[in-house]
Amino acid sequence: MKVVIMGCGRVGAHLATLLDIEGHSTTVLDVDAYSFRRLPPEFGGNALVGSGVDQEALIQAGIKEADAFVAVTQGDNRNVMAAQIAKHIFDVPKVVCRIYDPLRRELYNTLGIEAVSPTTIFAQLLKEKLEQ
Fold first, then answer.
1. Any alpha helices (H) in 7-117, and if so which ranges?
2. Residue-level pLDDT at 132
3. Cβ neighbours of 111 (radius 10 Å)
4. Closest by Cα among 62, 75, 64, 79 to 28
5. What are the chain's domains?
6. In sequence order, which residues have a C-beta less than 8 Å from that of residue 69 and are 6 or more positions away?
7. Which end of the chain is more exposed for a tag (fewer CB within 10 A), N or C?
């Protein structure tokens, strides 16, 4: 599977590493080259400086051939915008984005954008721990 990941923070770097270990073709896109320090030395994918809301940067990252796109920057708006570009302009089959705000996540899911909210997931995990 060919995957483009926007954001090389802790989550993006870890996801890229996991996918690379499994043999997937992985490209990480981030606006800050220093972020790539989070990738291990043995990372076999590509790391490109650029914005996931810039179509030229996405093309350079291989979005036209991508099977999946994941947006995991710190910005909900950037993640949603990049997800929409990947889904509606480049017709990427699987698009997922991180949205911190649970209310916005529900709205985006209603609009057909697969969004994951770590806020909701973590709150549920904490609740389950309290009930044990």
1. 10-21, 55-61, 76-84, 102-110
2. 86
3. 10
4. 62
5. 2-130 (3.40.50.720)
6. 3, 4, 5, 6, 63, 82, 83, 86, 87, 90, 92, 94, 95, 96
7. C
**Residue 108 identity (one-letter amino acid):** Y
Hey, what amino acid is at 52?
A: G
Rounded Cα distance between 115 and 77, Å, is 12
**Which pair of tokens denotes residue 66?**
């991508």
Interior angle at CA 74, CA 72 and CA 80, nearest 5:
60
pLDDT for position 112: 80
Rounded CA separation 64/102 (Å): 30
Nearest to 30 by CA among 16, 1, 9, 45: 9
What is d(CA 107, CA 115) in angstroms, rounded to the nearest whole number? 9
Element holding 117 (H helix, E strand):
none
Q: Amino acid identity, residue 114?
A: E
> Which range (15-19, 53-57, 58-62, 102-106) has the least confidence?
102-106
First to last CA, the chain: 39
Q: How many residues does the chain have?
A: 132
Q: Regarding beta strands 68-71 and 94-98, do their DSSP bridges make them parallel or antiparallel, or are they unpaired?
A: parallel
